[in-house]
């Protein structure tokens, strides 16, 4: 643990780790101070995310950017899975679906757009492996089809038998999970040689030893999950204090704070000209949520939920996911990035966020 | 006919040809045994499709894969045209439209996806001429626009004057036929040099002489048409026995069995690393149905139908065709295929098929 | 002005310039003769457009095709801005929006499609700089998202608070203008080396001196604006005489005549194998209208309008703009053009135009 300790002493941001016990204490003492808990949680997540980012980079230095990105995406989504499971157990399906759709859109547009922008401000033109980008955007497209088709085919949507939607959701969930699994076989096994990084990273600092990195990864992930739960519990009430609509909170704020750890890694990758790491985290995480987390939640709802959850989303959410997917397909087609590509993606995200921010409470 | 005879003796599948007279006899003797006729028709179509596939390959060995694919697509669609004409004469417009849309989707997603998968299981990476793929998907996109725009522009769709839809359908039909004709001029004449095959096929067996192949093609096509008619007549009633919904039968079962001949050729091409043949058959057939068969049916309905047919499709069908077209555009953009590309396309098809299978009868 | 005079003597089309004073006189004397004024205006716009085209080419011979295209697009849209401002002052928001959407579609599909066709009839294959095409189509995609999202997210559109739509429209307008400005910084400054022309033009005629060209540009633009206003005033009434629907006039006729000057330049560029000029004019003009002219009109409506205008378009218009954008994205992806690509784009435009032409008056 010497490496970890040295890192903490050198990096002032990590001193915020001292807030971790404070946050847990505050929750015990005063569980109703939502605004305080909200601010503490946000401040605590930042150093944890930084630590997670550093550990991931150390691991991916050994495994390559594709595996490193997958690892990072999986750990990042573990948090979201934990949060969603809590909501699922309480039967809050709308919250679960909003956080799933919001995370897909945030990872695709915000995380990737900001990575392109941050990288582009430092490097004139950046190239990345477009094979991986294509695989992930194709998977996202498949998930989008699975979101669109139930409501589209059943044109008279309102009188649909709920039985139909339940059976269909289970079937679609199995299809998506199988597709995701085959995608892993394809990218990590049968055609792994296509998924190498474009730019060989030259690490400027010595990475941690593998065991330190892995233990840090596991431990910090647990803390992130615990703090995230405090965050989710306090955010809705705190949002009212700040004058935000529930749609904006569920779709934008939760997704951005919940994805802080992944963003820290992705942005750091982009600034080091390792855009393959950023693409792997952003699109990989979005695809994983769409093709693995969401379907697993549907299937688990039969075991742990008060009632089964289906895969039918609010039409506005479907359109936002569709727009995010189409943007990613159009933008990553060439495997080349500049700052303006990042601006474009962020602008699309800004349009979605602005619309949700202004949406009157009943409009959703 | 010596070649043909030799082929039949060597290939056990072709021994099923003995069922052809049995099927015709059964229809004469017991036209109400729908389930028996259904099974006989399916078993009879298999050897006929195999024969058709072999004849097509012999012809395309002389003409090149692009022309061979077009020839195969045209003969395959001849069957569908014959069936659709019968339905048109009876005024069964819903059946005609379902079979048209179902054939477009099946050729684009199932035939091509299965070709990519079968080819990819044998070859690590396969390249094909993306110029032809782009031409066909662009034509499909044009046809999709023609399907979308009437109902989209007329936002108050239900109160639309039927007169408007009739005139528009005739106009759109002429536009599509002209575009298809110009596409043939482009690919077969003015820019034919762009449409050559990527991989030069090395035939492992001596092809039939051209006249044997052509006579076989013509003769077998007639038999396929006759058996297909028995199949279509029996399928709806047999489907009830097997517990399938009418939407599933019209869209999926009819399209898959009706396209068996083309599929046999396309799959065989993919296994021989002649993916240009598969792409030419799959996308070429879909484009031909969308831009030639469907418009011709609209125009012919003024001559032979009890009433004129329009080009307005059930919204679910329009969305399925749109999804199939977008999938083809995204997937064939690079001109390169692996097994996973095939899996993705088949998964999209599976999602559509599953939705239709579960759709309650009134939901369409 | 010697160059200008010499040009006029040599080119018989320019003799129609004699009609300019006739048109203004006719408007003074008989402002109610709509059909006469309509015909005079169309005949007058042709030589003015020719002159504008020649002046633009002289300027772009000095500045390069990218800047030349931008200059041409801006001057062409100046006309449309002037006309729209007049309509805005009168509170005719439907006319303003129809002309904005119509101009986007006409520039994307008709101007570019006809350029590809005209160029392709002379040259077998033409290449152009696809970086510029991608930038412009990405900007168009962003604008399309801004058009789609308000009505999409607010699924219960009709009961939407008008207050929400007003605030959102102002926010979206600012986002679009900022994106357009950053796009100019990107293409003209930070990454200008990516936007050079593919084919170096070999001018067959000596260009005018820069000062003559610029003075001609400015002067002719003013005349075009004045004549356009006469055209717009007379077109609706004249259209009834010719049996056209208002939707067709607002969307198609106004856009085609209003864009005559840009078309003359774009077609001339295509015939001289300077397709980068055509792409720059067509897509550049469409992007400018969508991301600059339309948002500026929204913001100006707070200053000069009788009431604020929002960015919400008739659903049919949104779909047409979406189709135009998707067509441009699909078609310009490869940076290569043939006559058939032009045919395809024109066919899509023809389908839209035909639908609007046949649409019963109440159907919009």
Give a brief rundown of this model.
Chain A is mainly alpha-helical and 364 residues long. Chain A has 13 helices and two strands; from the N terminus they run H-H-H-H-H-E-H-H-H-H-H-H-H-E-H.
Q: From N to C, what is the helix and strand string of chain A? A: HHHHHEHHHHHHHEH
Total number of helices of chain A:
13
Largest interface: A-B, 34 and 32 residues
What is the gyration radius of chain A calculated from CA atoms? 20 Å
Mean pLDDT of chain A: 85
Low-confidence stretches of chain A: none
Describe the overall structure.
3 copies of one chain form a homotrimer. Helix content of chain A is 78%, strand content 1%. Chain A has 364 residues and is an all-alpha fold. Chain A has one domain (2-358). The first copy, chain A, has a two-stranded antiparallel ribbon with strand order 1-2. The N and C termini of chain A lie far apart (49 Å). Chains in contact: A-B, A-C, B-C. The A-B interface holds A 134-135, 137-139, 141-142, 145-146, 148-150, 152-156, 160-161, 164, 167-168, 171-172, 175, 178-179, 182-183, 186, 190-191, 329, 333 and B 124-125, 314-316, 319-320, 323, 326-327, 330-331, 333-334, 338-341, 343-344, 347-348, 350-352, 354-356, 358-360, 363.
């Amino acid at each position: 643990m010497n490496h970890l300790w040295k890192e903490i002493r050198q990096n002032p941001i990590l001193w915020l780790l001292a807030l971790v016990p404070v946050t847990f204490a505050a929750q015990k003492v005063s569980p109703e101070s939502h605004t305080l808990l909200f601010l503490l949680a946000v401040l605590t997540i930042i150093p944890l995310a930084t630590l997670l980012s550093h550990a991931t980079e150390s691991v991916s230095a050994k495994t390559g950017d594709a595996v490193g990105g997958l690892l990072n995406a999986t750990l990042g989504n573990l948090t979201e899975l934990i949060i969603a499971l809590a909501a699922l157990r309480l039967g809050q399906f709308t919250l679960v679906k909003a956080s799933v759709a919001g995370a897909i859109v945030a990872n695709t547009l915000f995380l990737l757009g900001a990575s392109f922008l941050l990288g582009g401000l430092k490097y004139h033109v950046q190239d990345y492996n477009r094979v991986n980008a294509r695989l992930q955007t194709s998977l996202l497209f498949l998930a989008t089809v699975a979101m669109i088709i139930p409501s589209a085919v059943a044109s008279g949507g309102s009188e649909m038998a709920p039985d139909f939607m339940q059976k269909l959701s289970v079937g679609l969930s199995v299809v998506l999970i199988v597709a995701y699994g085959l995608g892993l076989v394809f990218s990590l096994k049968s055609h792994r040689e296509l998924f190498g990084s474009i730019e060989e990273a030259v690490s400027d600092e010595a990475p941690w030893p593998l065991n330190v990195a892995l233990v840090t990864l596991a431990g910090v992930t647990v803390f992130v999950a615990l703090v995230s739960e405090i965050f989710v519990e306090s955010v809705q009430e705190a949002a009212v204090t700040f004058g935000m609509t529930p749609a904006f909170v569920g779709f934008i704020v939760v997704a951005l704070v919940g994805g802080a750890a992944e963003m820290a890694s992705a942005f750091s990758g982009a600034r080091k000209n390792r855009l393959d790491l950023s693409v792997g985290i952003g699109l990989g995480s979005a695809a994983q949520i769409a093709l693995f987390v969401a379907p697993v939640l549907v299937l688990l709802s039969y075991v742990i939920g008060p009632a089964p959850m289906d895969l039918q989303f609010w039409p506005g959410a479907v359109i936002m996911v569709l727009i995010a997917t189409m943007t990613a397909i159009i933008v990553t087609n060439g495997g080349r990035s500049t700052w303006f590509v990042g601006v474009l993606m962020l602008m699309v995200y800004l349009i979605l966020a602005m619309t949700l921010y202004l949406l009157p409470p009943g409009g959703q």
